[in-house]
Amino acid sequence: MLWWTCYTSFKCGEEALVCLEQMNFEGVEPNPITIVCGLQACEIIGSIEKAQKMHAGILRKASVEMDTAVGNALINMYAKFSMFQNAWNVLYDLPSRDVIAWTALITGYVYHQCYQEALHCFVLMQSEMVTPNPITLISILKACSIGETMDKGLTIYSQMLKLEMVRGESAIGNTLVNMYGKCGLLKKAQELFDQLETKDVISWNALMSAYLAHDHAREALSCFEKMQFFHIFPDVVSFICGLKACCSLGLAKKGLELHAEVVRKGLLDREHIVGNALVDMYAKCGLHVAANEVFDSLSVRDPVSWTSLITVHTQLGLTQSVFSMFSSMLQEGIKPDPVTFTNVLKICSRICCVDEGQLLFDSISKGFGLAPTLEHFTCVMNLLGQAGRLYEAAELIKWMPFDADHAIMHTLLNLYQNFGEVNLGHRTILKATRQEDKDNVPFVHLASMYTDQSRRRSFYESDTDALCIFQ
């Protein structure tokens, strides 16, 4: 039994299952604790086949009702594997459904971002008069961080106040701060933060993240400084928030100070995401040499770090550098993200590399399995338009898997205007603009195109008259 708990405690799933096989070989009957450890081991190594085999063995030898802990472990395991019907089947087979069983199902739904289903479970749990525990509340409040379910979150919070469940539970308080922050209720998040009896680093991080998410970088940076005044030492998340705040405010000097502190704590060597934040901060503050130096020093370069640097070089118009970095990124086996493709397509558009740009655009879906974004379509449309291939640019709208927004329409109309193609512009607007659309901007743009055409015609006619006089 000691070996079982040791192996599962230290996430050694394979070793734990070897022990189980040895037990079976020696004819030792597993008890409920052994079975629970076995299911946890299957979860650790991600083997649903072995887990289902264990479940079948349990059903053959005895009923799940024999031990609630085994049933709860099965629910937890199936929920983590997103096999919710199996989890429900086990739940309904239990003679008594306790808070642990319901919480396992709720946390599984939240883990897989099925927030409405998590709330439905919570309502059913309450209908059975089961009192939630702190873990239940933390999970359900995470589900309520999505805007549509905010009202439910407020209702749950009021229930918690009545039950005095918030007092002394810093984890619940932190989750509430996070919930209010994600929903944009920054004043309420700050008030709740101020009421927390214990403010740990997670509390400060939740508040900083809330401010940053809603473009309050100055308040976020103030939080970063205050937490240290209260002797709360920043962790990785804190430093990333601080660097993002410096980035938004253009405070390169403060960013340099944070960089020095990161190096002193040895975080740059251990946490590559801090390195990514530094590259991004230096790049957006205009310190491109520093951004390159940090990038070169990174032991791990992921799509974020590559994209941050490629973005910098795109902004500087360093064409060959962007192509070279993109090629190096692919050679290192790093899969580009949508932002990377946007930057390279912009460079293609800038130097009018039509064929290369089209090949790159095609590779987004065919080569990398990503769905092209509206920005990708806009870049290619611009590229084709600059090459004078206006009909191809217009045809691109038909192939988009989403409606053309005004930004892409304006891009197309600008191209028509540059080439004096008023008729094409008129037809495009009539096709793409819905009757219920009350935005008159495209029509204003079209009027401008007709005005330009009229001016050109007037200039041409006056110029012809002048030539006749001299003749």
Would you write up a description of this structure?
The protein has 471 residues and is an all-alpha fold. Among the domains are: 301-391, Serine Threonine Protein Phosphatase 5, Tetratricopeptide repeat (Alpha Horseshoe), CATH 1.25.40; 403-471. The protein contains 28 helices and no strands. It has helices at residues 2-9, 13-25, 32-45, 48-61, 68-80, 84-93, 99-111, 115-127, 134-143, 150-162, 170-182, 186-195, 201-213, 217-229, 236-249, 252-264, 267-270, 272-284, 288-297, 303-315, 319-331, 338-350, 354-366, 374-386, 390-398, 406-418, 422-432, 441-470. Helix 16 packs antiparallel against helix 18 (272-284), helix 21 (319-331) packs antiparallel against helix 22 (338-350) and helix 24 runs antiparallel to helix 25 (390-398). The termini are far apart. 39% of the residues are buried. The model is unreliable at 1-12 and 458-471 (pLDDT under 50).
Q: What's the quick description here?
A:
Helix content is 75%, strand content 0%. It is mainly α and 471 residues long.
Kindly list the characteristics that best describe this protein.
471 residues, Serine Threonine Protein Phosphatase 5, Tetratricopeptide repeat, 28 helices, 75% helix, 0% strand, disordered N terminus
CATH architecture of the domain at 301-391: Alpha Horseshoe
Mean pLDDT: 80
Count of strand segments = 0
How would you sum up the major sheet? none
Distance between the termini: 110 Å
CATH topology of the domain at 301-391: Serine Threonine Protein Phosphatase 5, Tetratricopeptide repeat
Q: Provide the β-strand percentage band.
A: under 5%
Structural class: mainly alpha
Radius of gyration: 30 Å
| Stretches with pLDDT under 50, minimum 5 residues | 1-12, 458-471
Protein name: Pentatricopeptide repeat-containing protein
Keywords: Repeat
PPR repeats: 98-132, 200-234, 302-336
GO biological process, one term: system development
